[in-house]
TrEMBL record:
GO terms for biological process: proteolysis. Belongs to the peptidase S1C family. CDD domains: cpPDZ_Deg_HtrA-like (cd06779). This is PDZ domain-containing protein. Residues 264-352 form the PDZ domain. Coiled coil: none annotated. SMART domains: PDZ. It comes from the Bacteria. One of its GO terms (molecular function) is serine-type endopeptidase activity. SUPFAM superfamilies: PDZ domain-like, Trypsin-like serine proteases. It comes from Candidatus Harrisonbacteria bacterium CG10_big_fil_rev_8_21_14_0_10_38_8. Keywords: Hydrolase, Protease.
């Protein structure tokens, strides 16, 4: 009796080959970026708390002879590791990008471990006052640099890879997921310092981001960094957030050129237009930022670039250099990508008439 020869369908072969190609793309992306990923150890002097015996000074016999009790007391300090984070190298001479909340303790010391296992003392050289971004420096040369991609070109559902010092213990841990959403506005808290950080325009991903991953790269299949892993929702699974890498490029350029992070300043207060605001006020457009005074002050800051350019209260700013303003990209997040002295063109709507206004940005004091 003849044996039946199994028939392999072309669809199955194509599926298998596609899976192999997909896995190979992930492997190559990780191999491309991993040499530039570093781990950060946070160390500081902490109190030594012991149980001390206290004599309450009560006469013998009142509670029995020799009555004493114990209470916690500080007997000294010890220098120890208190936390960890991640980062990645952005210049061959040792400039590293990480999260502000990872290196925010002025009393702590920071040690960097490279992918090769080398150990360096790190110095915090710049802190972004607005974003959860910091730059640190180690004394080294000819280091591998992470390729930076374009976070404006990302798409929801595309594959991404998170790399970092998972839980502060497992160096260069890799997790794979997708971009679950874009332009999320969240408040991230740091368990080490107890501080909160507003993150605007964040990338949401289901790639696992754990304590210790903060500051590590979020990578696309080309092996390019598209985000800085920053936060995870406590008590929720598969919800992590990264800062778009384009938000950090200005900081890198600024520190390399000026030695500090220079924040561009437009000088307006505004409300981002929402569907609710459109319906409530019957606005003529459904996107943009409407310049309005609030409890903090007037819509146009006196002597600001906005005032010098002739912007007025109730102007609706529609675009900055052809980038539309909306819920996904706020006015402030777009302006932050430029630097002091740059001229930007604002497309505005005033009294129903669309016009363009050129503004030269200044440095925020």
């Amino acid at each position: 009796m003849r044996k039946e020869v199994p028939v392999v369908k072309f669809e199955e072969v194509d599926t298998y080959q596609s899976k192999i190609a997909y896995e190979e793309a992930i492997i190559q992306a990780v191999e491309k970026v991993s040499p530039s990923v570093i781990s950060i150890t946070i160390s500081k002097n902490v109190p030594i708390i012991e149980q001390c015996i206290v004599n309450p000074g009560i006469p013998n016999g009142f509670f029995g002879n020799g009555f004493q009790f114990t209470t916690p007391c500080q007997t000294g300090t010890e220098f120890k590791d208190i936390g960890g984070g991640s980062g990645f190298i952005v210049s061959p001479d040792g400039m590293i990008i990480t999260n502000k909340h990872v290196v925010s303790d002025n009393q702590a010391s920071y040690t960097v471990f490279t992918n090769e296992g080398k150990k360096y003392d790190a110095e915090v050289i710049a802190i972004d006052p607005i974003q959860d971004i910091a730059l640190i420096k180690i004394q080294a040369e000819n280091l591998p640099v992470a390729p930076l991609g374009d976070s404006d070109s990302i798409r929801t559902a595309q594959t991404v890879i998170a790399i970092g010092n998972s839980l502060g213990e497992f160096q260069n841990t890799v997790s794979v997921g997708i971009i679950s959403g874009q332009s999320r506005n969240i408040v991230a808290s740091d368990s080490n310092t107890g501080t909160n950080q507003q993150i605007e325009g964040a990338i949401q991903t289901d790639a696992a981001i754990n304590p210790g991953n903060s500051g590590g790269p979020l990578v696309n299949l080309k092996g390019e960094v598209i985000g800085i892993n920053s936060a995870v929702i406590s008590g929720a699974e598969n919800i992590g957030f990264s800062i778009p890498i384009n938000n950090a490029k200005r900081d890198i350029r600024s520190v390399q050129a000026e030695g500090k992070i220079i924040i561009p300043f437009l000088g307006v207060r505004y409300r981002t237009i929402t569907p609710e605001l459109v319906e409530e006020e019957e606005l003529p457009v459904d996107y943009g930022a409407i310049l309005r005074s609030n409890q903090e002050g007037s819509a146009i800051v006196p002597n600001s670039p906005a005032e010098k350019a002739g912007l007025q209260e109730e102007d609706i700013v529609l675009k900055v250099n052809n980038t539309k303003i909306g819920l996904e990209r706020s006015l402030v997040s777009i302006i932050q990508r430029y630097t002091r002295g740059e001229e930007v063109t604002l497309t505005i709507l005033r009294n129903g008439q669309e016009m363009e206004v050129k503004v030269v940005l200044e440095e925020r004091n």
